[in-house]
Write a structure and sequence with these properties.
It is built from two helices and eight strands. The protein has 145 residues and is mainly β.
Amino acid sequence: MKTLITIVIAASLFIGSTLPKENTTTLTVTVDGIRNTDGWVGLALYDSEGEFLGEGSFAEKELEAGSTLEFVFEDIPNGTYAIAAIHDENGNGDLDTNEYGMPTEGFGFSNEAQATMGPPSFDEASFEVDGETEHYIEMVYMGGY
């Protein structure tokens, strides 16, 4: 009997460890419109207005042939999020700008939020994640090389 109880407890612990975390999900983000394979594309995922365009959950990918990348954020809590994306073509770790402060490298925001006279607000870029979610970002290039 003691062995049976031990087996049942061990099985319960194993099954519990393989189940998805409660109230978490997967967010898949497709980034399209990347103009070349130079450098890398990075995404920052934000869950609050106070964090927006600061230190977020960051993921980056080196570019290969093709102009579409897919990023997957796993086990994120359901909630409201916003994403900022950059295409760092020269690999210097910055979104380069011209003498007028306009980006010369690609960028994009979730929810199709537009950057007019500066970046959009968290509210403009935010979207709800409640269960497995797919999101799309189109890169924008304003000029440059």
